[in-house]
Every structure is written in structure tokens, then in C-alpha cells.
């Protein structure tokens, strides 16, 4: 029976995710314990009411998880000559318990940790998916054609002899395997940081919100803009951008006529009139950044914002919680806040903020 949440994360941030899940689960009234090892790329949170916890703790509220799954079965010690039979037997046992039903799964995702050790399992994962998928369809577990509306069945390879069976709800999970969107660096982008803002818009806004909030001729401000990666993304969304930085910007941005470069300190500059979007990727202490971002909302200088918080080496979950709570308190208004450590982030998290509607 489901006994744990299984969450993919950035390798090296397992302790942060474990601490976050432990605290959030306790607050939700579903205490348990986390099992994690630094560098393995995932965390298991063991709880007797795992299914109820999964409903009480949506993915959008979890900062350090890329993906949230409900673990159905843990299958260590598999024989490499036949991994399919134990999986089928586990599904049959779950059916007897009333936990799963034939035909309930719309897609099969076979995954592996995004870690140094886990990447060695990539070839096995691909080949095993091709072998398992027809067997699941023949046995009636998987719909005849992929149906993204139904729950997914996940097979997570933790080693050649060890898999975890899990499921995810498409309404409360990442739409990408491992929670990693496949973005490519554009040849015209001024820096790789452009991928962070692109991923933020894809991950932290839903399709309806993107249609409403990312429109032509919106006004935007990019604090600490040089060399212009985030300004470039905003410009590509059709916005008119004020890029604030004492450093140089890429000339192609300025030649576009949609980006104005203001040489000023991003922590001191303020707009003459409110803008639709403010973005900020400045390297500074996270509490200082959170305080300045709150000022922008408190003074009514922006409607929406995306900003990064660079985290310290220790107590990163604690620092994250302190910064987000302080930011919300100092805005002096009800806020919608979504924070995530994105795939293209490093020692940081990305925050989307906008007044609650």
C-alpha cells in the first residue's frame, strides 16, 4: 500500500528537501520521517497516511522538490534477467488491496535519479520502458494510447537491482519526467541565465496565467540586468524592458529598440511609474534581496515579480523559510508566492510573487 512520498530533487539538496518535507508534513497534521542521502537526487518521506499527505501537500508548495510522487511499492533485490514479473506481481497485490485498478494509468514514465550515479542508469531506463510498456498494456494496466489526463505510473530505477513503483496525479505534478523541462540555450541569448527565467515562466505559471500575464507591450524592469539574459527573455515575450545595471549590456538587445539600459544600482533604482513585471537575479544576501523585493510591492512599483534568492551553504531550508515569510509580511498585502529550486538554478531558488486575486 502507498507508504511514502517520493520526490526528485537536485543532487546535493536532499537534506534541504528532507527538512522541508518534515516541517510541512507536521504542520499539515501528517507527521513522518524522511529518508535521504546527500547526492542521490531523491528523498523518500515515510508516513502512514501517505495518500492523504500527498493531497495535503501539493507540489506547488514544495520548494526543493522537482517532482512529487506517491510511492506504491519498493522493489529491491531484483533479478536483472526478469524485472517485469515482480512489477506485475506488485501491481496485482496493490489491486487486491484496492489501491490500483486495471486501466487506471494513462502513461508510463521510467526514470532514474539526476545524479552522477543515476545517469549511468539512463540507457537501462530507456530500454526497460520499451519492454515494460507493451506488457502493461497487454495486462490491462495501461491505457491503449497515452492519456495525459489519467494518473501516471512511474518506475524509478535506483540501481540495476532496485526499482520503486510510484504514481502521480497530472493535476498535482510536473508535466516533465524527473520534473526537468527540456530547454535549449538559444544562440542569441546573452547568457545561460536566460534559461532560468524561461523555466520560471514555464514552471511557476500555468497556461492560463501565461496567456494573461505575458503579453506584448507590457512594461518590465530587470534589476541587475547585465549582460541581459533575463531582459532578452522579457523582450522575446513582447515586453518593453528597462534594464538596470552599472555593467554593460549586449548591444543586440539595445539595437532591438525594446530594451532601455539605465546605468544605476538595482538596489537603489525605482521606476517613475509602475511596471507590469519586475525581475531580479542579483548576487546578494537573500534577506537583503527579499527586503528590496517587498519594497517594490509595498510601494506599488510592480504588479508581478520573479526573483532569485542565493542561498548560504548551511541551513538553506531555514534561510528559505525566513526569507519567504519576511517578504510576505513586509509587502503589507495578501500575496501569491510560488518558490522552487529550478533545474537551471544552482545554489539558489526562484520566486514568483504577485498580489492575490
TrEMBL record:
UniProt feature coiled coil, ranges: none
Keyword terms of this UniProt record: Cytoplasm, Methyltransferase, rRNA processing, S-adenosyl-L-methionine, Transferase
Family: Belongs to the class I-like SAM-binding methyltransferase superfamily. RNA methyltransferase RlmE family. RlmM subfamily.
Top-level EC class: transferase
Stretches assigned to the Ribosomal RNA methyltransferase FtsJ domain: 191-284
Pfam families given in the database record: FtsJ, RlmM_FDX, RLMM_N
Primary subcellular site in the record, as a coarse category: cytoplasm
Name of the encoding gene: rlmM
The EC number(s) this enzyme carries: 2.1.1.186
Subunit: Monomer.
GO annotation, cellular component aspect: cytoplasm
Positions of the catalytic residues: 310
rRNA processing found in the keyword field: yes
Residue ranges of domain RlmM ferredoxin-like in the record: 4-69
Domain called Ribosomal RNA large subunit methyltransferase M THUMP-like: residue spans: 82-168
A GO molecular function held by the record: S-adenosylmethionine-dependent methyltransferase activity
Chain residues that bind S-adenosyl-L-methionine: 193, 226-229, 245, 265, 281
Protein's recorded name: Ribosomal RNA large subunit methyltransferase M
NCBIfam families in the record: PRK11760.1 (NF008734)
Chain's role: Catalyzes the 2'-O-methylation at nucleotide C2498 in 23S rRNA.
Listed InterPro entries: RlmM_FDX (IPR040739), RlmM_THUMP-like (IPR048646), RNA_MeTrfase_FtsJ_dom (IPR002877), rRNA_MeTrfase_M (IPR011224), SAM-dependent_MTases_sf (IPR029063)
Record's subcellular location: Cytoplasm
Catalysed reactions listed for this entry: cytidine(2498) in 23S rRNA + S-adenosyl-L-methionine = 2'-O-methylcytidine(2498) in 23S rRNA + S-adenosyl-L-homocysteine + H(+)
One Gene Ontology term from the biological process aspect of the record: rRNA processing
